[in-house]
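= Protein in question =
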Amino acid sequence: MSADCIFCKIVTGTIPSTQIYADDDVVVFKDINPLAPVHFLIVPREHIESLASCDASHQALLGKMLLLAPKLAKEQGLAGFRTMINTGREGGQEVFHIHVHVFGGGTTLPKT
């Protein structure tokens, strides 16, 4: 955990969130600034800065995160959805704790 990371604080419950799923490895919660009618984040409990920081030891966790996306999207009423992982400042990452955005619903999806 990182003391100054907003996602670490959400994972520990220090900052409230609207959780839709949690287990020993990940916490999933609704985005506070949604880009679509359904927009949630899959966040590992372990503080990992970005996808570029991952190595082979993270393979199972990354696979779990991606396999959760369609399951939770369906539970949230989505027939189709988009996933996005921003990596690094140049890649649009704002919170430096790896996370998968899952969003959909409505008639169009945002391009960013």
